[in-house]
Specification:
Blueprint (H helix, E strand, L loop, with lengths): L1 H29 L1 H10 L31 E6 L6 H7 L4 H11 L13 E6 L5 E7 L4 E8 L4 E8 L3 E10 L4 H7 L5 H9 L14 E11 L2 E15 L2 E9 L5 E4 L19 E4 L2 E4 L6 E4 L2 E4 L5 E3 L4 E8 L5 E6 L4 E11 L6 E2 L4 E5 L9 E8 L2 E3 L1 H7 L11 H17 L6 E3 L1
Antiparallel strand pairs: 1-2, 2-3, 3-4, 4-5, 6-7, 6-23, 7-8, 8-9, 9-10, 11-14, 12-13, 14-21, 15-20, 16-17, 16-19, 17-18, 18-20, 18-21, 21-22
Helix pairs in contact: 1-2
Amino acid sequence: MVIGTGLIIGFGANIIISSEMNIRKSFVRDNPVLSALDKLHRPALIDYEDEQGFTEEPDFVEIEKGEIPETLHTTEGTVQRGDSLYSILAAQGLSPLEIHGITTQLDGLFSTRSFRAGQKYSVARDDEGNFRRFTYHQSRSITLHVEWDVVSEEFHVSKEVQDYDTRTSNLTGIITSNLANELQRNGRYGLITQLENVLSWRIDFNRDIQPGSQYRIIFEEKWLNDQYVGVGNILAAEITIRNNTYTAYRYQDPQGVVGYYDEKGDSMQRFFLNRPVNYSRVSSPYGYRVHPVYGTRHFHGGVDLVAPTGTPVYAVADGQVIFRGRKGPAGNMITLSHANGYHTQYLHLSRYAVNYGSRVRQGDIIGYVGATGVATGPHLDFRVIRNGRLQDPMQALASSSAAQSVASEHRNDFLAKRGMLRAQLDELDIQLASAER
């Protein structure tokens, strides 16, 4: 009871004291003379500043919004020949264990083979010089970030992709030398591989296309703000050679299946491309031969296609990489598995362009011509196997049946879209080296 009374008395006294202090503060604040005396005789403790810089109870507290940015110091660099992601990060003081953790996070997000000489990067450090962020500009639209999180004390990897605009463009002209040069001169060389994949069953690009041949191409372009990024899909292409016209239209059916078709809706493509590489000659055919290195007569299970080192090698059909590696005299080799019991092999490669287990589409670049293993010079040894039995590669490529045409239930839809593209092609005037964008 005494304790309770004491608490009540104490609480009441605090109220009275607090009220008196408030009255005194108000009275002193309103009287200039008393205010000056109050400051003169105020105890030294009143000058203490709290974490917000207050020395006494404020009348109003302004709430700040936002975040105080951390000061980081950034240096920029350019990837040099021989540099790798590992070497650059190691030069920034990261340990092998830390770099391993980063590359593990990069798996599936970024291929270290995309680390190319000439690309820009930057490194950010804090005021103490500690590593905070590595930024790699993979392309105009893709940026890779490796950041150190000071809170979680972990590295985080992210990829920033800027959306680009897709614009429809066209090129028309009369070929004066060859089609590749025409496209190069117009800054759209990236179209050549697509054109070859689309029309190679109807046209031999090395022999058929001659000066005087005409072309019309409607295609997509990728733009990032006002900067050209690259070419997209070819929508329609037409080449006229000695009064013979070959036309292909891109069509995606309601199920999402994409293909290139002629005026009737028949596929422009077959199960196999007609060639896996742009070669100059066949140096060794399929069958029995005298080996150019060993000098012995034996069976040759492929066909040797001569081309310069670094020439792109294409997948002749949709498939999956089931082998990628060094294979004795075959050198660097890739084996693809395809439908209908087919496998294709690509030997003596100088380097690879796909990973083991990757799925590839017909016409994708999978590697580059070389002379690894036992070889007298750069060439591609190309092989075709069906149901475990070797096939003559050139016969297999030539005899593969045509792919399916537009399904009957989608035919009206195809004809409507083909009609719109046909009208656009007809509007294009053939002019020497002309280009509209």
